[in-house]
Specification:
By secondary structure, the chain is an all-beta fold. The relative contact order is 0.12. Helices cover 0% and strands 67% of the residues. The N and C termini lie far apart (32 Å). Strands 1-2-3-4-5-6-7-8 form an eight-stranded antiparallel sheet, with no helix packed on it. The protein has one domain (4-100).
Protein backbone atom coordinates (compact mmCIF):
# COMPACT_ATOMS: atom_id res chain seq x y z
CA UNK A 1 0.00 0.00 0.00
CA UNK A 2 1.20 3.49 -0.75
CA UNK A 3 4.08 2.22 -2.88
CA UNK A 4 6.13 0.95 0.05
CA UNK A 5 6.57 -2.17 2.14
CA UNK A 6 7.62 -1.75 5.78
CA UNK A 7 9.10 -4.09 8.36
CA UNK A 8 10.83 -4.28 11.71
CA UNK A 9 13.43 -6.61 13.15
CA UNK A 10 14.50 -7.20 16.73
CA UNK A 11 17.84 -8.89 17.43
CA UNK A 12 18.07 -10.83 20.70
CA UNK A 13 21.22 -12.10 22.38
CA UNK A 14 21.02 -14.19 25.55
CA UNK A 15 17.31 -13.30 25.80
CA UNK A 16 17.96 -9.54 25.76
CA UNK A 17 17.25 -6.95 23.07
CA UNK A 18 20.49 -6.20 21.26
CA UNK A 19 19.24 -3.81 18.57
CA UNK A 20 16.27 -2.99 16.34
CA UNK A 21 15.90 -2.26 12.62
CA UNK A 22 13.18 -0.36 10.79
CA UNK A 23 13.01 -1.28 7.08
CA UNK A 24 11.38 0.15 3.97
CA UNK A 25 11.26 -1.29 0.47
CA UNK A 26 10.08 1.19 -2.15
CA UNK A 27 10.45 2.21 -5.75
CA UNK A 28 12.84 5.07 -6.39
CA UNK A 29 14.35 6.31 -9.65
CA UNK A 30 12.75 3.41 -11.61
CA UNK A 31 14.35 0.82 -9.34
CA UNK A 32 13.63 -0.83 -6.00
CA UNK A 33 15.61 -0.07 -2.84
CA UNK A 34 15.68 -1.49 0.64
CA UNK A 35 16.51 1.10 3.28
CA UNK A 36 16.97 0.50 6.96
CA UNK A 37 17.88 2.26 10.18
CA UNK A 38 19.35 0.68 13.29
CA UNK A 39 18.44 1.51 16.88
CA UNK A 40 19.88 0.57 20.27
CA UNK A 41 17.47 -0.95 22.81
CA UNK A 42 16.96 2.58 24.23
CA UNK A 43 15.86 3.66 20.69
CA UNK A 44 18.90 5.85 20.04
CA UNK A 45 19.73 5.63 16.34
CA UNK A 46 23.00 4.30 14.97
CA UNK A 47 22.86 6.36 11.77
CA UNK A 48 22.63 10.15 11.70
CA UNK A 49 19.07 11.50 11.58
CA UNK A 50 18.90 11.91 7.78
CA UNK A 51 20.99 8.81 6.96
CA UNK A 52 20.12 5.15 6.51
CA UNK A 53 21.68 1.95 5.14
CA UNK A 54 20.75 1.47 1.48
CA UNK A 55 20.60 -1.92 -0.33
CA UNK A 56 19.92 -1.52 -4.08
CA UNK A 57 17.77 -4.21 -5.72
CA UNK A 58 19.53 -6.90 -7.76
CA UNK A 59 16.98 -9.64 -8.57
CA UNK A 60 14.11 -11.87 -7.49
CA UNK A 61 14.22 -15.53 -8.49
CA UNK A 62 13.56 -19.00 -7.09
CA UNK A 63 12.33 -17.78 -3.72
CA UNK A 64 15.19 -15.28 -3.27
CA UNK A 65 15.03 -11.50 -3.08
CA UNK A 66 18.57 -10.26 -3.69
CA UNK A 67 19.74 -6.77 -2.82
CA UNK A 68 23.37 -5.64 -3.06
CA UNK A 69 24.87 -7.06 0.15
CA UNK A 70 21.66 -8.61 1.51
CA UNK A 71 19.65 -11.69 0.44
CA UNK A 72 16.30 -12.96 1.73
CA UNK A 73 15.65 -16.61 0.87
CA UNK A 74 12.46 -18.60 1.42
CA UNK A 75 13.67 -22.04 2.52
CA UNK A 76 10.18 -23.53 2.92
CA UNK A 77 6.74 -22.34 4.02
CA UNK A 78 7.95 -22.01 7.62
CA UNK A 79 11.60 -20.99 7.23
CA UNK A 80 13.61 -18.07 5.88
CA UNK A 81 17.33 -17.41 5.58
CA UNK A 82 18.90 -13.94 5.53
CA UNK A 83 22.49 -13.48 4.33
CA UNK A 84 24.23 -10.17 5.02
CA UNK A 85 27.60 -9.16 3.59
CA UNK A 86 29.66 -7.36 6.23
CA UNK A 87 32.88 -5.37 5.79
CA UNK A 88 35.61 -3.98 7.94
CA UNK A 89 39.01 -2.55 7.02
CA UNK A 90 40.63 -5.96 6.72
CA UNK A 91 38.02 -8.43 5.51
CA UNK A 92 34.58 -9.19 4.06
CA UNK A 93 32.36 -11.95 5.45
CA UNK A 94 28.78 -13.23 5.18
CA UNK A 95 26.60 -13.48 8.26
CA UNK A 96 23.70 -15.93 7.86
CA UNK A 97 20.61 -15.94 10.08
CA UNK A 98 17.98 -18.68 9.85
CA UNK A 99 14.40 -17.93 10.89
CA UNK A 100 11.52 -20.29 11.60
CA UNK A 101 7.88 -19.31 11.92
CA UNK A 102 7.06 -19.20 15.63
CA UNK A 103 4.00 -21.43 15.39
CA UNK A 104 5.59 -23.99 13.01
CA UNK A 105 6.50 -27.55 14.04
Amino acid sequence: MGGAMLGTYRHLSDGKNNFYEFMQINEEDRSIKLRLKHFNPDMKGWEEKENFVDFPFVSVENGKAVFKGLTYECVDENSMKISLELHDKEKIWIEVDNFKRKDSP
